[in-house]
Amino acid sequence: MSPTTSAEVFAHAQSVIPGGVNSPVRAFGAVGGTPLFVASASGAHVTDVDGRTYVDLVGSWGPALLGHARPEVVAAVQEAASRGLGFGAPTTTEVELVDEIRYRVPAAESVRLVSTGTEATMTALRLARAFTGRDLVVKFAGCYHGHVDALLAQAGSGVATLALPDSAGVSTATAAETIVVPYNDVDALETVFVAHGDRIAAVVTEAAPANMGVVPPLPGFNAALRRITLEHGALLVQDEVLTGFRVGYSGWWGLEGLREGWAPDLFTFGKVIGGGLPVAAVGGRRDVMAQLAPSGPVYQAGTLSGNPVATAAGLATLRLADAGVYATVDAASARLRGAVTTALAAEGVPHAVQWAGNLFSIMFGAEAATNGAQDYATVLSTESFRYAPFFHALLEAGVYAPPSPYEAWFVSAAHDDEALGAIEAALPQAARAASQA
Ligand code: PMP
Known about the structure:
By secondary structure, the protein is an alpha/beta fold. The chain has helices at residues 6-16, 71-82, 92-104, 117-132, 158-161, 172-176, 186-196, 221-232, 251-255, 257-260, 286-289, 308-320, 323-346, 366-371, 376-380, 387-396, 417-436, and strands spanning 38-42, 45-48, 53-56, 110-114, 136-140, 178-181, 200-206, 235-240, 266-269, 280-284, 351-356, 359-364, 399-400. Helix 13 runs parallel beside helix 17 and helix 16 (387-396) packs across helix 17. The chain starts with 5 loop residues before the first helix and ends with a helix. The mean pLDDT is 96. It is found in: Cytoplasm.
């Protein structure tokens, strides 16, 4: 008989797939227990193979801005699929998707579509190195940019969840070309540039970090990155794979750079721009992007890049993601943040709900409650052990929160009063579990 429960599928999966999953955070490593094997998802809900339905706060780790399986998006995918699944030749849809991205983020003057965020940041680095003729790259501790060799040092996301130091298999030479600086620390960055400024190709940063839990940039931090990189002739790469078109119509840049009148040299995007299918992008200054083959000498390619079905999903998603959608998601996020704080306060659990736009996460402990966490070292010193019982109490009550304290909670436009009410109803019990940890 073929396996029918999540536990049965997971047991088999572990014998044929490393760790039983195709991306580490899915394995419930930080919270223990059996991952849900999802059978279907619709709106604000996911249903597992055991037949249980949960209010979903993972949102496919970001893409599900509109909620799952929004009918117009599914229809666009079906229509595209009916015309063929992929051609390895250019299509109109991918140009339309790039136009939509550029309309929202005009500083992305020229855009190349790829399939994953990892490819996007990897390409951004190669471009920066070629354009500047320099080798060193600066990243911030706790920021995650995909599993690019050069960017795995002190990375967040699954690397933090599994308490891995960095990654094995990255050559010493590659690791030596990456300089890691504490997040939100302008002085530390200045010091690095004083020492190595003429060898630094790029500073890569999450526009607003959400892979070490949510750690918003302090006011002026991103602008300082812009100033320092300009002073030293390095490029600024703003990774908006997660924030792009999720925290607002023009991503994090729309909340900050657009208002302040500056832009990074390169952006990376992903997640929402594929609407749940594999699409990501690197875009930015026309002169830098022109270095990419075939117009320039920097090689980059992809059999599935700009895939017609995937780009149809992304285009339909972005076209539906109007100001009303962002207002709805922002309001849902604010309501949930308030509910989390109310529930935890009622149980006397010291904590901070840290947020950036509509992304948020919970940091436990008195230190976080008092001062918040502005860098990775502080995040790692929080009482993250309270998260597993909190998570499992929510799961038991039918709420699927991210299975790691270091990931953001993703709400969607489909999180209506009923879905939010179900989460609110589950929170007191979860807060009690957190207090007893
Ligand atoms: N950058 C950021 C900010 C991300 O959050 C992620 C994925 N969570 C990536 C890059 C990598 O994207 P992908 O998983 O599509 O390779």
